[in-house]
Structures are given as structure tokens and as C-alpha cells.
Amino acid sequence: MPAAHELVLSDEIISAVDAIQGEATEFLKTIVAIDSTLDKGEEEVQTTILKLLQETLGSGADVEGAKSTQPNCFDVGRIPVILDKIKDKRGFSPVDWKYDESKFNVVASYQGGSSDGTEGSNKALLLQGHVDVVPANESDGWTHPPFSPIIKDGRMYGRGSGDMKAGVVSMIYAVIALRRIGYLPRTNLTICTVIEEECTGNGALAANHTSLLPFSDTTKTAVIIPEPFNFIVNAQMGVLWFNAKITGKPCHVLQTSAGSNAIEGAFSLFAALKVLEEKYNEPSNTHSAYIGIDHPVNFNLGKIEGGNWASSVPSSCRFEARVGFWPGIKIEDVKRDIESTLNDEANKLGLGLEIAYRGFQADGAVLLPDFVGGEASGKKSLQTDFVDSLQKCYKTASADDESNAGRTLLVKPITCTCDARFYSNLYQNPDNVVVTCFGPESDSIHGVDESVSLKSFRDCMVTIALFINEWCGLEKEET
Length: 479
What we know:
Blueprint: H1 3-19, H2 21-32, H3 43-56, E1 75-80, H4 83-86, E2 104-110, E3 123-130, E4 150-152, E5 155-157, H5 161-180, E6 183-185, E7 188-194, H6 202-212, E8 220-225, E9 232-233, E10 235-236, E11 238-247, E12 251-252, H7 262-280, E13 299-306, E14 312-313, E15 316-325, H8 331-349, E16 352-356, E17 361-362, E18 365-366, H9 382-397, E19 411-412, E20 433-437, E21 442-443, E22 451-453, H10 454-471, E23 474-476
Parallel strand pairs: 3-7, 3-8, 8-20, 9-19
Antiparallel strand pairs: 1-2, 2-7, 4-5, 5-22, 6-23, 10-18, 11-15, 11-16, 11-17, 12-14, 13-15, 21-22
Helix pairs in contact: 1-5, 1-10, 2-5, 5-10, 7-8, 9-10
């Protein structure tokens, strides 16, 4: 494609995204207002997204599992999360809840028909994002109710505004913008929204095979997950959730020394875990992707409950915790470290202890090996092509922002987990699939008064639309 045409097309794409910015922002408000925590379920927000995709990219008909018979339409449908199909797969996280018809992912796929043999016609793109959010209560100190989104000073506030509903809307509306001006991808493009990223990753595990279709072993597939990181992610930590039940000896407080306080014991056990955390963080143990990152391995005591009377020494206590660990470390080895540490401390204190695992059993992953330790210098690979294209598109998208103009997206790791691991070399052939997270700038994710920058939301949407042109190519829709 001639350079002059690319310039014109870039301007056309930017104008198209800017023209629907208001519509995209309103849709973002609509889905931020939906409480999609695990307890409330993701069905309502997924149904809302499914309807949008059917009306804007599909045929408009809600025919479950049916292929579109209309030209130039995406195949849009729901993919149920079925326990029996994922429970024995690598990456499955154990749960104590049911998977029923309310648990589903949404997929919209378009199979490009470029037949002119042009370079790049074997490329494909997957845009993936999660719709679940972590719990939020106004009583925690929110300025406004967390599920009543407001816009103030160029930011949208509300639970999930940053993590990651703005990213989900940006990837969907990037495609809608291109359709509004009559363009279709020349090659395969898939949009996939998934459940349970915040607690298991089982949604992405269930969608993995489906969302990568109809990509073949010869296809060079790029995966962008617009999580709230305004940089290019090259690695992510492993995460394991567990719960511990501590049993002490009850008695009246006037005979405190005759009993064993299970709640005090819980804090002693977690203090022992913090010693393990420091061991994991020792420089000699640091993964090469995290050199220079301050305290990347973190353990968190997330929930604790116990006791039944202020004047009684509590006989039981239960806590839930999150443990981070390096890429390349086996989950079974982390479990052994946890169990050995806690059992040693419990035995020392004369406490009973039961450990169980529910939720995350997520491997750490290096997403872009060529960008760890400066190894990409001078290389030419699928990863460098991907990163170069994404950086180029972001520079174009943000060129009108004086504070951002010319900024190159940094490439760096994150100290948490996300669904990108399922598209890393742990699960996919790195010669055929490349993945990163890049999304709009957000603040206080998982915290109070979570927000997203609407300017960054717009820039992310433009970046993705430009990247579709760069990676997949575009052609005018046949009329």
C-alpha cells in the first residue's frame, strides 16, 4: 500500500474514532453501572455486550451458535463455560461455585477473505478483555457510589471503569469505527470478552481454543488485551490463592494462658509467610524480567474471620491469602513452600491447621521473551514486528497531545497476573502467537474511587483501530 494512501487512511481512521467517542463513552457508562462482581455474576454485562456486537458488527439476529449468512458480518455468539471441558486442562483454577447458563464468554469473529497474496495476508488479530470486576462498597470511602459512574475533570469514576471495561469498550469501538466508514479487515479478526479474570482465569481458559479460531498454525496471530496498563507488558507474575483454617483451644479470658487464640495464631502464621515473601524477593532469586523493580513478589492477607465472643478466646479462625511468584516457578513448588512454612509455625504454636486451594492457580509468564534484558536489540521477529507496530500506532494516535506527543510506549513487566498467560509460550507456539497488554491510563484499580482517563481511553481506541490497519490490513466493504 503506498505511503501517501496510508497517511490519508490514518487520518480517516482517527476521524472515525473521534466521531463515535461520545457513543463509546456512553456505552462505557452503561456497563460500568452494571455490578459484574463474582457474587452478582457477569451475565448482564455479557448480554449487553453481545447485543451491541450483534447490532453493530453482526447480522442483528440473536441466533445462538449460527453462522452469519449475510455478507460482511461478524459471527457473534456466546460460548458457555463448561466445567467438564476445562477442569483437567493446564491453567484451570479450582472453584466452589457452579457453571451454569449464566456463565459464558462472548465471541465476535470475522474471517477475512484477502486472496490477492499480498504480504501480511497470513496475519490475524485477537482482541480480548474481561468484564468481571472486584467487589466495591460505598461504605469503603467512595466519593460516589461505585456502580453509579460519573465524569469529572476528564475522567470516568466507577468500579471497573479502568479494570477493564474501558479497555473492553475501546477494542470493540475501534472495530465499530472502522465499520462505520466502510472498512473490513483483510484477514481474520476476533473480539472476545471473558469472565472470571479477577479470580480464576477460567473464562479465558474456556475461550482459548474458540477465540483463536479460525487462525491456523501458519497464521501469525497478535493478541492485545487492553488491561489498564499504559505501556507494553512483557511479563507477568504467577498468582496462587489459598485459604487456611486455624483451630485453637477455647477458654474464658480469665484463663487466657490455658487456651490457644486462633485469631492471634492466624497473624503469627501470616507473619511467617511474610518471611517467605522476603526470601522470594532476594536479588539472587529475581527473575531477569523484574530486575530493577522494587519488591515485585507480594503476599496479601485479603480476608479474615473468626471468633464468636469478645470475652472468649477464639477456637477457630479462617483467612484467605494471595501469593505471588516468579515466572518459571512451578505452582506445586509454591504450594510446598506455603504448606511447609505454615505447618512449621502452627506446630510451634500448638494450633490445628487445614489448607485448601480455591481460585487462582495462575502460572507466571514471559509474554515477550525478546524484550527481556535488552535482548530485542537488533533482532527481527514476530515479537519485534508486533511491538514496533503497536508503538508506531500509539505515537500516531497521541500525536495531538502536547504532553504525550512523541512518547514511546515503554516495555515492562507487571507484578500481578492477567489472562495474557493463556496466549504466551506456556500455551501457544511463540512462532505463531504474540501477546501483550496495553490499555488506557487508570487510577486506583481495585481501590476506592477507581477512574480512567477519557483522553487515554480515546487514544487507546485510536491505537487499536490503527493497529488493525497495520496488522490485518483494511479493504472497503463491498456494497
